[in-house]
Amino acid sequence: MPLFSFALRVYWEDTDAGGVVFYANHLKFFERARTEWLRTLGVGQERLRHEEGAIFIVSETTTRYLLPARLDDLLDVSVELQQLGQASLVVAQQCRRAGQVLAKGTIRIGCVDAGTFRPRRIPKTILERLA
Question: Among this protein's residues, is 16 annotated catalytic?
Fold first, then answer.
């Protein structure tokens, strides 16, 4: 599957008092990019919940911060599928500014039942789109 990229701008709300992106906000940037990646594959999170009774949750994350992102930076956040299982997937993500990697992470996403939050298989139609 090709690398997916999502552009976003750093706003005041994303930064600390020094104008540097607060470290935890990189996880928000990664989340936005994954949501848009799924959307381009025809997987709407709200539709997944209502029609399939399933939701995706983050079950594990590792993030490495290399350089600061700052107020007004235009960032490119990538998503690359690394592993696809029956009930989970692993993606590699990077946050770049002008091609330079600022942060990178690996995120494990699990599929759970929307009512019980118990693990369940990823719906077949979605597995087919991700494969």
Answer: yes
